[in-house]
Every structure is written in C-alpha cells, then in structure tokens.
Amino acid sequence: MTELVKGRFSRKVLVPLLILSLLATMSSVLAIMVRAEEAPVLPTFDIPALSEEHKTSALPNVIVVATGGTLAGAASNGDKTNFQSYRAGTYPMADLVAQLPKHKTADVSTYQFGNKGSGGYTIKELYDLSLAVDAALEIYDSAVVTTGTDTMEEIAYFLDLTVRSEKPVVVTGAMRPWDVIGTDGPANLYQAIKVAGSGKTKWFGTVVMLNDVIFAAREVTKSNSHRMDTFDTPMFGALGYVDDPAVRIYRAPARAFKAGTPEWATPFDLKTISKETLPQVGIVYNYQEASGGAIRGLVEDGVKGIVTAGTGAGGISSGLSAARSAAITNNGVVFVSTTRTGSGSVYGGSGNTVAGDNLNASHARMMLLLSLAFSNDVSQIRSWFQSFGTADVEISVDANTVLSTSVDEEIGLPELEEPVVTEPTPETEEPVVSEPEVTEPPVVEEEEVEPELQETVVTP
Ligand code: ASP
Q1: Is 206 among the residues known to form the active site?
Q2: What per-residue confidence (pLDDT) applies to 401?
Q3: Ligand 1 atom nearest to CA at 71
Q4: What is the pLDDT of residue 216?
C-alpha cells in the first residue's frame, strides 16, 4: 500500500471509526450515570436479629410482620361483646404474641410494620411491606403477615407477585377484635405461625390462613362481611388445613410447579423500580345500562390501566364500551376484562384489552398495576396474565419421572393418639333398669303361597 493510499484510508475509515467508538463509550458512560441516578432509594427496616435463645433452639424461626387490622383491634368502650364496633390496629403485635401460649412448633419474633386497617394502606406502603417481608426472610425461616381482612386478598396477592424469597409467607387476620368473647384473633395467629413454621408452603408464594384453612393468595376472596369463615376460593378450593396433629397440604398452587426454576419468580422485582413509578389503576363495575362515566372519571384521574368487572363472561355496556375505546385511542389506557360473577374465567381480548383469566377484579388490578410498572408492551402484559399462577395440568409419566409427593409417614405426622375424652364420674349409682323378659314368639309354620301374578297393561 502506498503512503498516499494509507493516508486516505486513515482519514476516510479510521478517523470516523475512532470518533464512533469514542461516542459509543461516552454514551454508555452516560447511560450508566443516568441509571445510577435512577437507581431507586430503597427503604431500610429494623428487622430484629435472632435472639441467642432462638439461635440455639431447634425450632424454626418465624417472624410476624404486623400491619394491624381487626386482629389487633380493641373493642369500643372495653365492651367485650362488641364484635363490630372496635378500633382496628390498636394493640402492638409483640404484646399479642406474648399473650399466646408458648408456641409448640416455632420460635416467634415480631416486627411492627404498621398498625391500621387494611384499607388504609397505600400501594407505595405495600411496596415497602413487600421489601420488609423479603428483608425479614433473609434472617428468618418464614413469615406471618397480619393484615385486616377487608383488603387482605389484595395485599396477599401483591406480596405473592412481588416477594422474591421462596420461603413461606402466610397472611392472617381476624373477623373479631382481639379482646372480645369468642375472638378468632389468637387462634388465627397461633395457627398461621404453625403453618409458616411447618415450612410446607415453601415455593407456594403467599398463602392466606384463617379459620384453620389454607388458601392460595391468587385464588382467595373475602366472601362475607361478618362471618369467621369468610375466606373462600370459589374456583379451586383450599390448599390444606391446620389440624392439631399437623398442617396438611392437599394440593399445591400452580406456581409451586415452577419451584427451583427461573420462571418461579415474577419479573416484578421491586428493588429495581422506585415506588414513585407505580401507576394508578382502577376498577369499573358493569351493570344494567352502565354509563361510560366511571371510565372517563378514572382517565381524568390519570390511570394507566382499568380493570372491568363485567357481567357474565366479562361483558360491558355500550356506554362503557364507547368510553373504553376512547380511553385506549386517546390515552393509551390498558384494560383487563374480568367477571363480576365472583368466579370463572374470561377469555379473548385484543389490542389494549387483555383477558383477566380467572382473576377476580381486585386481584387483576394488582397484576395490571405491577405489569404496567414493569412494561408498556401490551403483548408482554397479556402473556404475563396468561402465565403467572395459571395452569393447564397434564400428567405424563416416563422412566425419568420422580414422584415425590409425601405420604403420611414421610411428612412426619406424630403418631395419632385417640383423643381422650374424660367422662364425668356419676355421683349416684346408675339406676338398674331391668329389661322385661322377652319370650321368643312362637314359630308359626307358614304355608307357601304362590305370588299372584299381575298382568302388565301396556298402552300403545
Ligand atoms: N376493617 C378491618 C380491616 O380490614 C377489618 C378486618 O381487619 O377484618 O383492617
């Protein structure tokens, strides 16, 4: 190559290449700086360290992360018959745990996250709660989270979708305040600690336990305003029960089948976003001749997503439908269709409308809110709705199949003793009742009689 050609080559090719690579380096340094600036400031939590006593004990270490609710409620005017007039979130959890009998199956510590009714928590506070639970699970074997029951299904599902740890998270509460007659608070707290300590819901995500029944967070709903057996999973039923001898798990939520794989964790890692970026998402209920006003109002409020609780298989009125189209076209709002029936799946959806599968409206709202915090891509959001916590089970067995369901002996059920019921000793002697003598009736030889055959009349 001549000197002339070399000179031209370096001017025409090398110099622009050099400038390009310089620019690329500068822009990646800039991107790192911007990302560093955007890195969310994460809250810190004063999670108690394990006590020396708990460190040396063989029992599992369970932490109760308390947020208040009726379980920590005090009856109005100290009236122990006030089931419905009380102040939720009054007593500190450390005092409540101290009032329980010493737990037989776990060492228990407490962390007071807050103390108020469930409906009083903001989504930003739930972001903090989720991080607090994960921080607690770095130290403890499992966590019980106490909340009010009113929005428990939303709080529990938010935790289910966001907690990174595979360790058990058990949400509980109560329908009657702590200090009234017949309260369910102490029993629910004790039993929830038992479930958490058993470790049996590891990889299940968050579960809810009240009234001795264990439910998947994704499936559970509050079904009655006052009754103590208010929690129910209308489509799938309970996961298991808490009985005296043991915690019994009869089925696993779909999520547990992804245990140990990268798909088990949702992409909603709250540590990677600031809580300020959590969007507003609303719910609109369909009814006879519903106007589009509810949708227009929410759009005006600045929502990024709306869940419709439709009639039947997700239907909405023409008024809502027109408002939905306008919100999509003019504001890019993402919609999720669910049913107001209380149970059942919704299919279909196209464009900015996503089918909510079998999530109820309040669960779908949490899922949409988190989805929109992590993606603007509707097809991505659609695939999350189709795949998180859903299942279409098919069993196939081949030579490599390992069946690992435990049977009673393997899960360590204590040997069942017959329950001892002590009868009171009668103070007086049992009266002797003499039975009348029964004489055998005389045997009468019966004549064998041919049965009379009846004609069957068949009418044409
Ligand atoms: N208002 C209460 C709450 O949700 C009800 C409850 O705890 O059950 O906090």
Answers
A1: no
A2: 77
A3: 7
A4: 98
- Structural domains in the chain, sorted by start: 52-264 (3.40.50.1170), 279-387 (3.40.50.40)
Tell me, in angstroms, the distance from the centre of ligand 1 to residue 252's CA: 28
3-state secondary structure of 367: helix
User: What's the confidence (pLDDT) of residue 403?
Assistant: 66
- State the number of CA atoms in the 13 A half-sphere of 235 facing the CB: 17
CA distances to 52, 109, 135, 197, 435 from 140, in Å:
14, 9, 9, 10, 67
What is the predicted pLDDT for the residue at 447? 41
pLDDT at res. 152: 98
Determine the Cα–Cα distance for residues 198 and 105; give it in Å rounded to an integer. 8
Cβ contacts of 290 within 8 Å, gap of 6 or more: 284, 316, 317, 319, 320
Q: Which of 2, 44, 70, 425 is catalytic?
A: 70
Strand pairing category for 213-216 and 206-210 = antiparallel
CA atoms within 13 A on the CB side of 431: 3
Cα distance between residue 454 and residue 460, in whole Å: 19
d(CA 237, CA 342): 14
In the block, residue with structure tokens 């407490």? 110
- Residues paired with 63 in a beta bridge: 109, 143
Bridge-based pairing of strands 305-310 and 281-285 is parallel
Shortest CA distance to 295 belongs to which of 281, 275, 312, 277?
A: 281
Rounded CA separation 197/105 (Å): 7
User: Measuring from each residue's beta carbon to the nearest atom of ligand 1, which residues come in under 6 Å?
Assistant: 69-70, 88, 117-119, 148-150, 173, 175
The CA–CA distances, whole Å, from 18 to 22, 215, 288 equal 6, 62, 68
Distances from the Cα of 342 to the Cα of 135, 190, 309, 369, 382, angstroms: 35, 30, 9, 21, 22
Q: Closest by alpha carbon to 326, among 335, 337, 313?
A: 335
Distance 88 CA to ligand 1 centre (A): 6
DSSP states of 14-66 as a string?
A: IHHHHHHHHHHHHHHHHHHHHHHHHS-------PPPPPHHHHHSSS-EEEEEE
Structure confidence at residue 22 (pLDDT): 53
As averages over each run of 10 residues, the pLDDT of the chain (460 residues) reads 51 56 50 56 97 96 98 97 96 98 98 98 98 98 98 98 98 98 98 98 98 98 97 97 96 96 96 98 98 98 98 98 98 98 96 98 98 98 96 85 61 60 55 48 42 37
Give yes or no for a contact between 388 and 266, defined as CB atoms under 8 angstroms apart.
yes
d(CA 67, CA 61): 19
pLDDT in the model for residue 14 = 55
Report the C-alpha gap between 157 and 367 in whole angstroms: 8
